Amino acid sequence: MDWGMENRLSQLIQKDGHALFLPIDHGYFQGPTGRLEEPGKTIAPLLQYSDALFITRGVLRACVEPSNSKPVILRVSGGTSVIGHDLADEGLTTSMEEAIRLNVAAVGISVFVGSDYEKESLLNLGKLVNEGERYGIPVMAVTAVGKELEKRDARYLALASRISAELGARVVKTYWCEDFDKVTQGCPVPVVIAGGPQTENEGEVFDFVYDGMQKGAIGINLGRNIWKNDYPVAMIKALRAIIHKKADPKEAREIFNTEKSKKA
Question: What domains does the chain contain, in order, with CATH numbers?
């Protein structure tokens, strides 16, 4: 592996082999998402507990202080919105030159396996990987499913994750599912767990993150289940304990409740 590529990956994946990525890129298709209306204020108390930010170039420039940041995974796909005809109809929105200019550690792109735009999104991934490899910038593939939530099963996610790795993604972001080990075992590159919509309670998050870590994930890329929580700092501290301190769900709940009581 080239020195630059390895250096960037080491910024993202910590010495223990694990990672906690904080995504705040939701506005690229959702607009001013609840509790993310002012991204800078949302991430200010969370930044120190994350290993990297997943973010668009506009919000990065407008809301993140260059002298007080974490490694950046730059969202470079888009072109659709929640009121458009199909979320899967994405294209590349940001050049690799822009990524270099912003000194990012990686770039991220969604792929929509099984959609009407499967071919286009996978060719976008291949093109981005070609450019990333040329400049030593890793690509994170996001196995997005749009509104078709029923696709979140091991067979589908294993397919999407493996294809992403085959096309050259250095990291794959995918959803947790039952039999998650079937996803990680079939994917030869590191897998991080996506969060998706906010869950009913914190315990559900601790349970699926812990299970995913036990079954081969290296970490998480969770946004709404952290910053939409009434106690986001308590939430990210508890999740960080699972990722980097091998805490189990019970221990994570105890950390959450302790931090929550401090805030109260």
Answer: 3-263 (3.20.20.70)
